[in-house]
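Milestone 3.1: sequence recovery, worked example.
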């Protein structure tokens, strides 16, 4: 299933928050992304309808298997691209910002080539 860049950002945010805290609520997403509660509620409903998240009786938000797959891919892309840009001399803040823009538009083929290159580079640094 193809998802939009916005949905990818929400999934990645839920993934990051779930690694930092036991429970993720809509208000946590609002704070992290600086979005309004109504906006987050609309997107969460869409993600539930597409089977990317579940919300329990206590309003805790969880990634489904499919949501986790997409979120972890986006997170990996973001982290690797941020590292690569910082290696090139880009400041951390700028690298993080630019990685967020690049991660969504990069083809799988190109990302895998960058990943292989970074792994090879890391091996040669040892």
């Amino acid at each position: 299933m193809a998802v939009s860049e916005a949905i990818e950002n929400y999934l990645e945010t839920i993934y990051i928050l779930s690694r930092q805290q036991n429970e993720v609520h809509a208000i946590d997403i609002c704070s992290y992304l600086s979005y309004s509660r109504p906006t987050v509620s609309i997107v969460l409903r869409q993600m539930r309808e597409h089977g990317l998240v579940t919300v329990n009786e206590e309003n805790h938000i969880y990634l489904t298997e499919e949501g986790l797959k997409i979120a972890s891919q986006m997170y990996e892309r973001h982290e690797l691209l941020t590292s690569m840009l910082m290696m090139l001399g880009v400041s951390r803040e700028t690298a993080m910002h630019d990685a967020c823009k690049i991660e969504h538009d990069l083809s799988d083929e190109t990302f895998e080539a960058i990943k292989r290159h970074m792994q090879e580079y890391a091996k040669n640094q040892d």
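The beta strands are 53-55, 61-63. The longest strand covers residues 53-55.
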